[in-house]
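Limitations
The structure tokens in this dataset are predictions for the assembled complex, not deposited experimental models. Users should treat interface geometry with appropriate caution, especially where small molecules or nucleic acid strands are included. An illustrative entry is reproduced here so readers can see what is and is not provided.
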Amino acid sequence: MNEEQIKQSIIRQIVLIAPDVDPGEIVPDKNIQRSLEIDSFDFLKILTALNEELGVAVPEADYGQVDTLEHMIAYFAKRIAS
Amino acid sequence: MKRKRIEKRLEDLKVRPHLIDYEKIYKEFQWEEVASQFEGLPGGGLNIAHEAIDRHANGVLVHKTALVWLGEDGQRREFTFMQMKQESNKFANVLRSLGLSKGDRVFTLSTRLPELYIAAMGVFKNRSVLCPLFSQFGPEPILQRMVRGDAKVLLTTKSLFEKKVRPLLDQLPQLEVVLLIDAQEDESEKVRSLARLMQKASDVFEILPTDPEDMSLLHFTSGTTGMPKGVVHVHKAIYMHWMSGRYVLDLYPEDIYWCTADPGWVTGTSYGMITPWLHGITNIVSEAEFDAQQWYKILQDEKVSIWYTAPTAIRRLMRLDFDPLKTYDLSSLRLVQSVGEPLNPEAVIWGMEKLKLPIHDNWWQTETGGIMIANLISQPIWSGSMGRPLPGVEAAIVQKKENGGIAEIIGPYKEGELALKPGGPSMFRGYLHDEERYEKCFVDGWYLTGDLAYKDEEGYFWFIGRADDIIKTSGHMVGPFEVESILMEHPSVAEAGAIGKPDPMVGQLVKAFVSLKEGFEPSEELRRELIGFGRKKLGVAIAPKEIEFLPSLPKTRSGKIMRRLLKAREMGLPEGDISTLEA
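Predicted assembly:
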């Protein structure tokens, strides 16, 4: 799975949980929760869904590493590759 | 989980607590004693900002750090009491120059920026009324509250303004000025740059005589049947803030204090700004939302000694599979208090194991303005209990009599409604423009809280649930009526009923049941459309997280949706009395 595919998975899950979000609004280096008004409950749901789809669980301690779309892609890419 | 008693030994505590003999202090306490802790205005009266900021800036604490602000992008700014005085004077002068005076409502819609805290103090100085909104509200809740609260000024940021307020301007004719925190230039006579106005404003301001009973704060809280109510508070509430700061938060001058609540909710104003400053304490404010590692880092780096947080955050910290004390130096921390919703017993025990400190639950409401019932640092904790009433607070379990009156239930473990004796300094003075609803809260000399509870033989109170349909999610109240009204605006929705569905992380999540109008069929696509519609209109803090379609909703014969029945069915509980159910 390449980074573009990971990105599309992430965007799809964000929009599933927050259907009012226009994918065009998602700025790669902006805090996802803050910029898209996704609260921690919804953020957990997004990460749970991504775990099911990509097979990578993000432990609570790593949440700081998946705060933006860019960081999230990198986080998943690294773990899928290994 | 079995209830467990946690004993304390005074010699284990890092600091000798202010309150040691609960029974004695409870019995002997007089509110008049608190009066001597305040200076009063030179021209007479009592003003929150004078007691919280100016008197320290005029005294030995002049150069002490009042506010440590930690920005989302790693910034760190400090403000001394003197700087807070000067900056809030400027803001008060800005308000005065805009023609605002006593009683005029200043709304805020902002993330936790320093300007929000400065403005709050400036609003009090100008004897205007602070009305904080949660930045995660959508346009509808913002509009409802601003209209009901007669908003004259709104302090906000450019992005929140564009996204949520600009489209509402036509519906807010009474709104005179919008102050944009991060705009460099004025946009118009109405939409102004705060920085520009602050630049021109003098840092000298004389607070005019303030009556202790003058309105200071207006917080909105949710109702079951109608739209949110504006809860009126007054300057005199600082009596309770000072007292609970001393006895519940056990504040000493050298403490570093961090309250994680947002000023959009009452904890964030009463305890996120006013209380620590009344005690001349350094107050930490973090702009970012919850992040476990970051939070531990703040506790460590800022050497936080007193921490006031919420069950939702504690439950998330509990998900971390490491030992915080091995990774972080939390040796300064000596007291953890929690509020927002009942703290589960497991969380109290987790604190003992992982932080080597018990977590103290306490109870109060927007209406009470300050902590009413609490577990105290020197006293044993029954895990799962909210603790005992504070000095000056009389609480009881009551039930309604057939004649409509109230009877106190005597004896332990008997369930009823939690009631308080009215008249405390921080108790609300009214629901704005709704005297009738206010009066309904008081029966036979008791204030009825709407919470069900019982008391044990030691006088500890235990929370059971709400007596009404109000939803408690992530520690804040959501009125089902507000959610239902918005869903009903969608062209497909015929009926809507909102309930709080139990959730291990956020306490309850907002779930809505809807039936559709003719010509619409339930589908995943429509479900998502409604979720998105709710988020857009109500904002993430209020919007339903789950939507379920039903052919029709259970109603009483008079046509009222039976939320209680929806909830019982959702939870697989007995349906109870359904004699009024429509055939």
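Some entries come with short summary sentences. For this one: The interface with chain B takes residues 16, 18-20, 31, 33-34, 37-42, 44, 59-61, 63-64, 67 of chain A (CB under 8 Å).
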